[in-house]
Write a structure and sequence with these properties.
CATH architecture of the largest domain in chain B: Alpha-Beta Complex
Number of domains of chain B: 2
Number of strands of chain B: 15
CATH topology of the largest domain in chain B: 2-enoyl-CoA Hydratase, Chain A, domain 1
Number of strands of chain A: 39
Distance between the termini of chain B: 34 Å
Largest interface: A-B, 27 and 44 residues
Largest sheet of chain B: 8 strands, mixed
Radius of gyration of chain B: 25 Å
Structural class of chain B: alpha/beta
CATH superfamily of the largest domain in chain A: ATP-grasp fold, B domain
Shape of chain A: globular
Helix content of chain B: 25-40%
Radius of gyration of chain A: 28 Å
Strand order of the largest sheet of chain A: 14-13-10-11-12-15-22-20
Structural class of chain A: alpha+beta
Number of helices of chain B: 20
Distance between the termini of chain A: 83 Å
CATH topology of the largest domain in chain A: D-amino Acid Aminotransferase, Chain A, domain 1
Helix content of chain A: 25-40%
Shape of chain B: globular
Oligomer: heterodimer
């Protein structure tokens, strides 16, 4: 059962995280990758990597890779093949150790209906439910939830408030379940109005020893996916913890569970009752908060168990210290309904302090596409108290120099700082109920400050790049010339900065205020601006500049100094509002169009988006064709307004 | 990189003395006056003219220059106070300077359309000549912004706000200014590119500016280039015409082919001008900095208190050198010989230089040392800096007998035949033949700058007045008439005052007999810029003979 080489059948942060623990145990690590990930950090960090033909779901190719690289075991991470019983079985048949529970346990828990039946059997509380989606609905009670039997992650899930809506919701859920999981079976379940999502981490060895490592609360979710998780839960007291832990272990014992797993419960916030939801037969994304409060490395335990070793821990030995909170940093746009965002991560520089754990799958320069889950990193803060952990996590997020792709960072920071979060008032409806700020609200002062910081940094860049008269002071004059000018754009807004250099080396801005440049590097600026001295991380990405302000990063467009004649397409330009695929282009250059007419049809997030003419005019340019994949903000076509061309 | 190995100079300046404080406050007063004059120069033809310009969507000349320069690069304006104390607006009606366009040091000469419509005044003419000279001597591209009403033909009464009644317009520079055309063609022959942006009218003689340039940028509905405008054409041939068909931008870009680049507007013209310079494949044959460019150890702020307004007060030029050169390091040559002239080596912004600085009159020994030193610098291709503060060559029986004429001539000979670049700074007095020997403007130096309190004259005002008095006394004695002492005293006072006034730096700079007054604290920066600019040509010392040990 022992192995010295481990293949990690996953990518991103979890692959890196598994490598970290495995390597510390003296195990060689083999990564796998698809072409889109050829330069990904999990590949470069592994001892060896094997290219997969096209998918991390290709079990056959992964087994071949393990054999070729001499891997004695496979760790599946989470997602992909992690809960694929057939693959787990195939590993065993190929003589490769599967780091996880038995294929039987996976299979049994993979079927939500079977899982629930087992829970009922071992007297674990469950929500009233019914597979009969018509007549028995009243027995379940309203509001109820329609759920896919094979589902997860919120797909195929519907809340139904009234009996009248049931039929339609069931039909929709079935369609989604069919397209999402290839299995259209659905069932009904009681819906708890004020609920929390609390789960118990379990760990078992091959000798039958089973322990639990306390709970995690993961109630804060958007689009039915967790974004902030913590341990302990502010709602769970010792007696509830014992009760839930015992329930989880009863279930685990019935399954003969080994390795790491999670039993998920719904806790009724009002009554404190808990109901079994499901068992995740794998390592969870949010496992680090448990590691933080227990001091136990769950991947190490998984690997030890897989090698046949006993846990060596009893339930009594488990101690919890302090509070840990994890935030999931996503490439997504909270202001656009949390739609995934794409682009190149031009900056990704976590600050060294405050000390938090960054489990990330990306580095500066990583391309974030639509191919994979848009999670960039998990950030975990552990502190003596929950309030300190929340503060530390918010500050660490805020101090990270991050940009190039729209992220939920500012939203996470805002969430962690709400009074409701700090009070532990975290039910699953948190985001809708509390609605934390979706993005950074910049005051005019702060925006001006950021623009001035950018202007001074560009000044430094211009001087550093000068090939003659580099020795002369920047913007030096012995007589009169107008002030230096730089113009930035923030969305539609324009911010100009003009300044001149004074004899003492400081700068005076035309609209008031002073600055002194203390140090410039190609990635930082240390400057005192209007009496406040701040060291900012700065990243220039061609005609954009990412400036770290006091409250996070701001991405400014650097407006060109000169306009190219005939290139003014600010008006009339049709821009993709999100990444997607062009389904149809309905016009050609020269066509006359009327305002509101659909010109291009874009498909994004499985939906069609008609792109309409902003005003009457003539199509001047078409930049895309049907079938093209376009990024957020990509120019699709240009409509010249009808009354243009007659000016002058 | 290594610094020069010589030890740093130590200051002999007592910055706590009352003299220092007084010198400093006088200098600051002068600088404040100059600051005001620079504001006046910026105003050009005044607010009304600027308004007219803005109404026509046109940019002021300095705005145009700022747009063509690389962002955040330095700009050294030359003769910004030309025309001081004259009938013309201060600045003279054109802006001249050295700036960086697309990473290339260029000389920029730009008409100021707010001053007499950019007409060619004597000051504009002199600045233009100087621009061409700088381009040729330093081998740097010549960029001109043309917008000129042509020669100033007016005989009108003065415009409102004009200080003095204007004399009949001077057109007697007409024959002289023809030289421009020759010079521009010569630039081209010397492979020195010329780029002309026509911002407005460029007519008659002015039409040859784009005519003689390598590249022309014309601006839609703004540039007008013709030998004769519609009125003159009508007078000459009876033909009816209009500006656009006769010489508009579109006509020149599409029909005559005079305009290579067609700009939509002034900003666009500046963009095109930058693009042209960026393709010039410009390489500087002069060597890059070769010494470590440490800042001076001595404080350049203290230069404000270095020189007394009474130029008879001695100044140790080493106190200037130590506040200007890299690390204040200075290797003095022959310090024990001819010590009224300090010679030695130093670095400025990493560029090696030989410095000659006056610590008094030129004696035969000092002149001899200078001639020797200049030859040495030519041997090793090191540019020369001349720091002038002298009342001339020493006079008197002993010195005549010691051969001051011979030794002085040797020095002038060495200066004249030296082929390394010379840059001259007048920080005190610059009198008599001493001005020439110390590579004054007439000796083909590359640049001449002057401090605000400096004076330039044939000799000191006191000396001139005194000499005249002695001559008058002699005449009276020869004629046997009594000498009116009272009257003589009055004349002496008046002559002295006139001479003093005429010799001040502002007068000199107004007449464009230098490249401009500089703030003493900017000395290092200005010299550094010039030392970089001269490297657009190889730095090559004179050849032919070995060093004469004189």
């Amino acid at each position: 059962m022992s192995f010295d080489t481990l293949l990690i059948a996953n990518r991103g942060e979890i692959a890196r995280r598994v490598i970290r623990s495995a390597r510390a145990m003296g195990i060689r690590c083999v990564a796998v990758y698809v072409d889109a990930d050829a330069d990904a950090p999990h590949v470069t960090e592994a001892d060896e990597a094997v290219r997969l033909p096209d998918s991390y779901l290709d079990g056959k190719a992964i087994l071949e890779a393990a054999q070729r690289a001499g891997a004695g075991a496979i760790h599946p991470g989470y997602g992909f093949l992690s809960e694929n019983a057939a693959f787990a079985r195939a590993c065993g048949e190929a003589g490769i150790v599967w780091v996880g529970p038995s294929p039987e346990a996976i299979e049994q828990m993979g079927d939500k209906i079977a899982a629930k039946a087992l829970a009922v059997e071992v007297e674990v509380p469950t929500l009233p439910s019914s597979e009969d989606v018509t007549a028995a609905a009243d027995a379940v009670g309203f509001p109820l939830l329609v759920k896919a039997a094979a589902g997860g992650g919120g797909k195929g899930m519907r809340v139904v408030e009234r009996r009248d809506d049931l039929q339609e919701a069931v039909a929709a859920a079935k369609r989604e379940a069919q397209s999402g999981f290839g299995d259209d079976r659905v069932f009904l379940e009681r819906y708890v109005q004020n609920s929390r999502h609390v789960e118990i981490q379990i760990l078992g060895d091959s000798q039958g020893q089973l322990i639990h490592l306390g709970e995690r609360e993961c109630s804060i979710q958007r689009r039915h996916q967790k974004i902030i998780e913590e341990s302990p839960s502010p709602r769970v007291d010792d007696s509830l913890r014992v009760a839930m832990g015992d329930a989880a272990l009863r279930l685990a014992r019935a399954l003969g569970y080994q390795s790491a797993g999670t039993v998920e419960f719904l806790v009724d916030d009002d009554s404190g009752e808990f109901f079994f939801l499901e068992v995740n037969t794998r390592l969870q994304v949010e496992h680090p908060v448990t590691e933080a409060v227990t001091g136990i490395d769950l991947v190490r335990e998984q690997l030890r168990v897989a090698q046949g070793e006993p846990l060596g821990l009893t339930q009594e030995q488990i101690r919890f210290s302090g509070a840990a909170i994890e935030a999931r940093l996503y490439a997504e746009d909270p202001a656009a309904g949390f739609l995934p965002a794409t682009g190149t991560l031009v900056a990704f520089d976590p600050a060294e302090t405050p000390k938090v754990r960054w489990d990330s799958g990306v580095v500066r320069g990583s391309r974030i596409g639509t191919q994979f889950d848009p999670m960039l990193a998990k950030v975990i803060a552990h502190a003596p108290t929950r309030a300190e952990a929340a503060g530390r996590l918010a500050l660490a997020l805020e101090r990270c120099h991050l940009g190039g792709v729209t992220t939920n960072r500012d939203f996470l920071v805002a969430t962690l700082r709400t009074a409701e979060f700090l009070a532990g008032d975290t039910t699953t409806d948190f985001i809708a109920r509390v609605s934390p700020a979706l993005s950074l609200a910049l005051s005019d002062d702060e925006l001006r400050r950021v623009a001035r910081t950018a202007a001074l940094w560009i000044h430094g860049e211009n001087r550093a790049g000068a090939n003659v008269l580099k020795h002369a002071p920047g913007a030096w004059r012995n007589a009169r010339l107008p002030d230096e000018k730089v113009e930035f754009g923030l969305g539609e807004e324009s911010i100009g900065v003009s300044y001149r250099r004074l004899r003492d080396g400081s700068f005076a801005f035309s609209d008031g205020g002073r600055a002194r440049l203390h140090a410039w590097t190609d990635r930082t600026l240390d400057a005192e601006i209007d009496g406040r001295r701040i060291r900012s991380n700065i990243t220039r990405d061609r005609d954009r500049i990412l400036v770290q302000g006091a409250r996070g990063d701001v991405l400014l467009d650097i407006r060109p100094r000169f306009d190219l004649p005939g290139a003014e397409q600010a008006s009339g330009g049709l821009v993709a509002p999100m990444p997607g695929k062009v389904l149809e282009v309905r016009v050609a250059v020269g066509d006359t169009v009327r305002a509101g007419e659909t010109l291009v049809v874009l498909e994004a997030m499985k939906m069609e988006h008609p792109m309409r003419a902003p005003e009457d005019g003539t199509v001047a340019e078409v930049r895309v064709a049907a079938g093209d994949q376009v990024e957020n903000g990509a120019l699709l076509l240009v409509v010249e307004p009808a009354d243009a061309g007659e000016s002058e | 990189m290594q610094p020069l190995l010589a030890p740093p100079l130590r200051s002999s300046l007592d910055t706590r003395s009352p003299e220092f404080a007084e010198n400093r406050s006088t200098m600051l007063e002068k600088l404040a006056e100059i600051d005001q004059l620079l504001d006046e120069a910026e105003a050009g033809g005044g607010p009304a003219a600027h308004e007219r310009l803005a109404k026509r969507n046109k940019l002021p000349v300095r705005e145009r220059i700022a747009l063509v320069l690389d962002p955040d690069s330095p700009f050294l304006e030359l003769s910004p106070l030309a025309g001081y104390n004259s009938d013309y607006a201060i600045g003279g009606g054109a802006v001249l300077g050295i700036g960086v366009i697309a990473g290339v040091e260029c000389v920029i000469f730009a008409n100021d359309p707010t001053v007499l419509g950019g007409a060619l005044t004597p000051y504009v003419a002199k600045k233009w000549m100087r621009a061409l000279e700088i381009a040729r001597d330093n081998r740097i591209p010549y960029v001109s912004f043309v917008e000129s009403a042509g020669a100033d033909l007016r005989m009108d009464p003065p415009e409102e706000g004009q200080k003095k009644r204007r004399k009949p317009a001077k057109t007697n520079h007409f024959a002289e200014t023809g030289r421009f055309f020759y010079e521009m063609i010569e630039l081209s022959k010397l492979d020195i590119p010329s780029v002309c942006v026509v911002f407005g009218s460029s007519t008659a003689g002015g039409a040859y500016q784009p005519g003689m340039s390598d590249y022309n940028v014309v601006i839609r509905e703004q540039s007008k280039i013709f030998l004769a405008g519609p009125p003159l054409v009508k007078m000459a041939t009876g033909e009816d015409s209009d500006d656009e068909t006769l010489g508009g931008a579109q006509m020149h870009a599409e029909v005559s082919g005079l305009g290579e680049y067609f700009a939509e507007d002034e900003r666009d013209a500046c963009r095109l001008c930058r693009e042209v310079v960026s393709h010039l494949n410009w390489r500087k044959p002069g060597p890059p900095p070769s010494l470590r460019a440490d800042d001076p150890l001595l404080d350049s702020e203290e230069l404000l208190g270095l020189v007394s307004p009474d130029l008879r007060r001695p100044v140790d030029v080493r106190d200037l050198i130590g506040r200007v050169v890299d690390g204040s390091r200075f290797e003095e040559f022959k310090p024990r010989y001819g010590n009224t002239l300090v010679c030695g080596w130093a670095g400025v912004e990493g560029y090696p230089v030989g410095i000659l600085g006056n610590n008094g009159v030129l004696t035969p020994q000092a002149a001899e040392k200078a001639a020797h030193f200049i030859q040495l610098c030519n041997q090793i291709d090191v540019p020369l800096l001349f720091f002038q503060n002298l009342t001339g060559f020493v006079v008197g029986r002993d010195f005549e007998q010691a051969g001051i004429i011979k030794k002085g001539s040797q020095m002038i000979n060495a200066v004249t035949n030296s082929t390394v670049p010379h840059i001259t700074l007048i920080f005190g007095a610059s009198y008599g033949a001493g001005t020439y020997a110390m590579s004054g403007r007439a000796f083909n130096n590359r640049f001449t700058f002057i401090w605000p309190t400096a004076k330039i004259a044939v000799m000191g005002g006191k000396q001139i007045a005194g000499v005249m008095s002695i001559v008058r006394r002699g005449q009276a004695a020869r004629k046997g008439i009594p000498f009116d002492e009272e009257m003589d005293a009055k004349i002496v006072e008046a002559v002295e005052a006139i001479q003093e006034k005429g010799s001040v730096a502002l007068e000199a700079t107004g007449a464009i007999s230098d490249d401009g007054i500089i703030d003493p604290r900017d000395t290092r920066t200005v010299l550094g810029i010039c030392l970089s600019v001269v490297r657009n040509r190889p730095i090559e010392g004179a050849e032919g003979y070995g060093v004469f040990r004189l």
